[in-house]
Structure formats: structure tokens, C-alpha cells
Amino acid sequence: MADRINEDIRFYLPADPYYYQVDNLPLEDLVKNDRILQEQIDELNAEDRGTTVNRDGINELLPFIDNALPGTVSVRAGNFIGRSQRTSGPNIPGTNVNGDKNGTFEMNEPPTRDDDYNVSNPPLKNDPGPADSVGRTAVYNFPGGNIMIDGFDYNEFGIGLNPNLTTAPLGRIDLVGITTVNGAMDDPYVPGNDTGGALETGDGKPKLAVVKGAGMIAGNTNVREIQIGSRFITVGNPQELINDYGKDLDGNVVPNPTFGTIPMPDDVVNVCMSRPDVTEALNEFANDNKNASFFLPLAYVYVPQSHVKGNPIPTAYLKDIRPLFRTAELTLAERQAIAASENPSLRNPFATTSHATGIADARVDLLRQEVQQMRDALASLQATNTVLIDPIELGQVKNRKTFQASDYGIPTGAYAIILKGRINGNIDNSKPEGYVRGAFGDTLLVFGTGEAQSGPDSRDVSRITLALPSNGIFSAKTEDAGSGELMSLTIEGYVTTTEFSNIPTI
Q: pTM of the entire structure?
């Protein structure tokens, strides 16, 4: 206990003589008091100064239990900075309000010189449009209020994919905070403005919200349930998945913990506008936003199995976690994208779209040069392309007969055709031969041996790939044949060339 100062100061009396020793007595008492005060100040300064004003000593946005409002958590009034992810601009799509220019213009190029500075875009740059509120922050004025804590529900714990893990723990942890759906100081969505029903306006003030530390059960298909500005449901472990040791509300390691997972202090309820395509224009990115929500966490509340909605909540069950009065500026997905990136560091920084495009363009130019070099090297090469078709019967020949390939659907660019020849007739002891003539003179296609091949129809069959002259004309004839021995011809395909010099450019 600190020393008390001497309040019994000697004062002059009517009979006191004017003598210095007597005159100094009151002064000596006052000096002694000053010494006592100084010693106590020195003792306070010698202690940990951080404990002189703790979290409870900051009254702004203080969470507390008001016994006059059983079952609720109250929060005092205060101001904070939070992310205000709302559409803006003079003409907000889908609304009848004139929003304030409450963000920063998205610049094509940041101003880096004094003569380039501009509140819009640098000189000679086009205005990209009303992307004024993308990722912006704003000041919020919370007027104070309270919110009810739901009773314990044994059916709220479980794993949807495993219906056997459904035992409720001894308690759950709820998170109380303030959402930023409404309430920014420059928010145009306040009572009295006609929004056309496009956006949820509320009363224009920030709202208290509760993130329940319940679990996902099979009934809700593992999907987080959200009612903006009121109730959120997040993941919480059933008893089967709680570890043997855990922490209590004060952070002490204890056996048989009474709760498992707890709501994350901010990320779980942070939701941003939808951006399905990263190539969308920023003004579309801004205009597509409808009631994005961010969250300022204030307190954890322990809810035991015995708690019934509306019953008093002990002060010991409330834990103040005010995080320096600001919300996170990233959504969970955005933060995961950064955390899951491939080895981010000073030597492996994040790249913007424009930077990546510049690198890609340079690489494409190099590839074009390499492709052109390969095209030049392959210009003199050709590759064959064989095309099989439905057989085309050319009839029978004995004396020489001429054919035009194009008459039978063979393309002009074909340099060869695939022919099948067959000797027909009663081949006794003769040895008939069938010839075809293309670009390189006569070529034997098929012949009969004349041995034991009597009958109405021989089975001497052969195929050849015949090179065509430039005019596409070829011929056929039969030699050393009897009177009834003829050669029948069939076209079964053709061969074309592919010139590498015709490879399309990039």
C-alpha cells in the first residue's frame, strides 16, 4: 500500500511569534508531502508501464456484460477504421442514389513526379471509370449496442461426411464483432435515400454480429450459413475430434478442454464482391458489388452446454480481443492466395498483370523469331499425307486406256494415287500382265501365272502407289492375255504433300 500524504499541515496561530523556525514548520510539512508523492511516482515508473493502462482501461468499443440485459453482450460506442467495399460514383447501377466519390481513383499509372500529380489520372491518360471504392477503407461510428447470444444446441456439432462424429463438446466459443455492411461516414445508403431496392440499407449504422462456434452437420451440407449483419455459423469440432489437451479462455493449457475450434477473429465473415474473371475492367469490378461485408472482432464468449438463450452470462465468460480497432483488409481467399503462392520473397515478388504481359510479349516475340528460323530451315522439306477413300471402280482394260485423275475426285495437289489391279478371265496356261503408266513410264501392277488358274475369275490381285504427272493423266493396258483375259482397276486413295513453308504464323 502506498504511503498516505500528511494532511495535518501546521497553520499559523494568533499567538505564534514571527520566528523563522516556527514560520518554516508548514513549509516543512508540504515538502515532506512532495517527497512522498515523488517516491510513489518513482515506484510507478519503475514498474511495467504497459500495465498502467490495459485493454480494460480503453473505454471505446469496450465489450462488457450488462446485468440489466441478461443473455447479451454489450459494446460501448466508438470509432474504428474498416474496409468499406461498396459501389460508388455518381450513378450507381441498380440504384437511385448518387453515391459520393468515396474512394481513390484507379490510376493507369501512379504519379511519381511532382508535375504528374493528379487527383484523377496522370496527364494524357484515360479515366478508367468509377472504380473508386475497390479495396478502400473508411471511418465507422458505432453508437453502442448489444446482441443476444444463442443457447447451446446439441445438434449443431458434427462432420457432414461422417454422421458418427456428432457428440457435442462441453461448450462452444462465439465471436462478437461489428460488420461494415453499413455505417461508413461517407456511406450514401442511409435512411431517406431511395436505393431502388438494389441494396440492403438498414439504418445506416454499423451492426453487431455473432459468429457462432457451432459445427457443420449433414443437414446443412457443410455450407457456411450467413445472415449478413446478424448471425454467422462457422466450423466447430465435435467432442470426438477435440484433443486431450487444449487451452481455456484465459489461454492456459488444460486437460480435457471444454471447447475445440473457435471462430477466426476476422477472416471467416469477410466477404468481398464477386470477380469471376481476373481480366474484368475495374469499373465492372466496382459496379458488381452488392453489400460486401467485413468484420471488426471485439470479444470471445464462452457458451457452456447449460446456457439457455436469455440467461445471464458470467463476466468471466467474456474475453476482450479488440485488435487495435481495425478490420483486416484482405478476404480469406485473398490471404490464402498470397500464402499459397510459390515461394514469395524479395527475389520472387508478386507480378502485376501489366508486368506479366510485358514479359509474355517479349517471350512471344522471341518465339516468333525461332519459328521463322525453323520455317526457313524446313521450307525445302515435304511430308506425305496418304488419304484412303471409298474404292472407285475404273472398269476393265486390255488395250491401253487413258484416265484423268481429277475426273474421279482426286485433288489437283495429289502427286500419286493408290491403284488395285486384278486379272479377270479364264487363265489356263497364259501369263497375262497388267501395266499402268504414270510419271515414270510403265509399271507392272498385276500378273497371272497361268498355272491351275482356270475358272471364270482369277484371284491375281496387287496394289501399287503410282506417281502422277503434273497433268494428272495416267493409263493402263494388258499384255500376253487371252481373248477373255482383262485387267480391272480400282482407285483406293491418293497421296499429297505438306510443305512446311505453309505453316501459319503466330
A: 0.58
